[in-house]
Automatic annotation (TrEMBL):
Pfam family, one: p450
Coiled-coil portions: none
Name used for this protein in its record: Cytochrome P450
Organism placement in taxonomy: Bacteria, Bacillati, Actinomycetota, Actinomycetes, Streptosporangiales
InterPro entries the record matches: Cyt_P450 (IPR001128), Cyt_P450_CS (IPR017972), Cyt_P450_E_grp-I (IPR002401), Cyt_P450_sf (IPR036396), Cytochrome_P450_Monoox (IPR050196)
Listed transmembrane segments: none
Family: Belongs to the cytochrome P450 family.
Organism name: Actinomadura fibrosa
């Protein structure tokens, strides 16, 4: 049988030069992922790179990436990275194979309905309001850790609405920290070494156990109470009432871990990069402040406010273009397939790297420039499908994309409505490439309080700056 053709037409295949003995391009990739990504398209539309001794293929053309992301059966989640992530996180919706994915996604999708998002946005607003009200004028904050804590508490509050702060949920929180710490190491550690009973490995196994026991305790508690709290856990438990079999307790524990790992880090990274960009672009920060005053001014924040914070939304999208936290994901071909005129064998690794698309001058004029208004509908209309891939695409597109966007928009509006931010000495904004995200190495921000606004005048619906 002929291999299916995926855009072989006029697309060019190329090989990235400069692979080092033993490590290939891995060192360059980890040292400066954005510079590496920006170079790749000059070698072709599909580019072969080396990760250690193994070959991998990077789609650098939006059409090719779209095809890879949309054909989850041929380009399945797998390979050493996902196999190891599965060893840590289990086979939840983010790590499972294509054959299992449709069922899990269908069961989880209702937890991200508009009505649920509205409830989660109350948690988001409460977390980021409390955070920004706790700061003092002139204070210097280490941004990533505090934003991470607020993002993590937001996911915990969305998962376990009425049990947030209880001992079981605090154990879940603490365990996820340790698990995340180890995830990156485990992803790169040769398989046999992961089972050596070092102190770190033992601690990791103990935390995974503690997390599973705590989630089981919260599930038992929810069952006894038999209530729908309108949160993520209630929606997962409600799947059990469906005829075709819902999520088992073990599967629910895996989804909880998936949401916590997928939902904290990337939001904190996005907010850190956004604040860093805004510290260097005070006029954009001032536009956000004015928009915040007009739209939110003194009123309780609602999820639907995010739609009316149009400029802030464009800042979030532009931040995700320049610094997509999900910078590297893998797929493995389940059968031979033709891509850009090459036949990739079954088992070939394909790398999905959003920064490769996001920094191409052919797609984004002056690609290094921070220009939120490039996302005005009339200017963004001509972008080809697949050109913006911060949330992935196809059936595996980020399940939390609307959640994350609302959270980032509300958080920026709340923070910049109250504070002016400037970078303080000691900031090192070079990107640190982690397993689950790309974040600034150290972002220290000096805060200056914005003088209190005049009493608000209600704005007409749909108004943006
Ligand atoms: C700005 C923040 C975020 C970014 C940039 C982001 C990015 C991504 C990307 C690129 C993927 C696809 C990975 C792949 O194709 O291999 C993904 C998947 C996923 N994300 Fe997000 N994410 C964010 C926030 C969130 C949040 C807040 C949640 C949950 C509350 C979440 C839950 C998930 C889940 C469950 C998946 C797996 C979906 C599936 O395979 O069906 N994400 N995310």
């Amino acid at each position: 049988m002929a291999a299916p053709d995926h855009g072989s037409g006029s697309r060019r295949f190329g090989v990235a030069p400069g692979a080092l003995p033993l490590v290939g391009h891995a060192w360059e990739l980890l040292r400066d992922p954005l510079a590496f990504a920006a170079r790749l398209p000059s070698y072709g539309d599909l580019v072969e790179v080396r990760l250690g001794p193994a070959r991998a293929y990077v789609p650098c053309h939006p059409e090719l990436l779209s095809r890879v992301l949309r054909d989850g059966r041929t380009f399945d989640k797998g390979g050493p990275f996902y196999d190891r992530a599965r060893g840590v996180l289990g086979g939840g919706v983010g790590t499972c194979r294509d054959a299992e994915h449709r069922r899990q996604r269908r069961l989880l999708q209702p937890a991200f309905s508009a009505a649920h998002l509205e409830r989660y946005s109350a948690v988001m607003a409460a977390q980021f309001t409390a955070l920004s009200e706790g700061w003092r004028d002139g204070q210097v904050i280490d941004a990533y850790p505090v934003l991470y804590e607020a993002a993590m508490r937001t996911v915990l509050g969305s998962l376990f609405a009425t049990r947030a702060g209880t001992a079981a949920v605090e154990t879940v929180h603490r365990s996820v920290e340790t698990i995340l710490d180890h995830l990156f190491r485990r992803m790169f550690l040769p398989g046999p070494l992961q089972r050596v009973p070092t102190a770190a490995n033992r601690r990791f196994d103990a935390e995974l156990d503690a997390l599973n026991r705590s989630v089981a305790a919260v599930i038992a508690d929810y069952r006894r109470a038999g209530e729908d709290h309108g949160d993520l856990l209630s929606t997962m438990l409600a799947t059990r009432r469906q005829d075709d079999g819902g999520l088992s307790d073990t599967e629910i524990a895996e989804q909880v871990l998936t949401m916590l790992v997928a939902g904290g880090d990337p939001v904190a990274s996005t907010l850190s990069w956004a604040l860093w960009l805004l510290a260097g672009h005070p006029a954009a920060a001032e536009r956000i402040r004015r928009e915040s005053e007009t739209v939110l001014g003194g009123q309780p924040v609602r999820g639907t406010d995010a739609e009316r914070l149009g400029y802030t939304g464009r800042v979030v999208t532009e931040t995700l273009r320049l610094y997509p936290p999900g910078w590297l994901f893998t797929r493995v071909t389940s059968a031979p397939v033709e891509l850009a005129g090459r036949t990739l064998p079954a088992g070939a690794t394909v790398l999905f790297m959003a920064p490769v698309l996001h920094r191409q001058a052919a797609l984004y004029p002056e690609p290094r420039r921070f220009d939120p208004d490039r996302w005005l509908p009339e200017r963004a209309a001509g972008l080809p499908h697949g050109a913006f891939a911060a949330f992935g695409g196809g059936a595996r597109q980020c399940l939390g994309n609307a959640y994350a966007t609302i959270e980032a928009v509300l958080a920026l509006s709340i923070i910049l409505g109250r504070w002016k931010v400037r970078c303080a000495a000691g900031t090192d904004a070079r990107p640190a490439a982690m397993a689950t995200n790309l974040r600034p190495r150290r972002l220290l921000l000096r805060l200056t309080r914005v003088p209190a606004a005049e009493p608000p005048t209600p704005s007409p619906p749909g108004r943006t700056t």
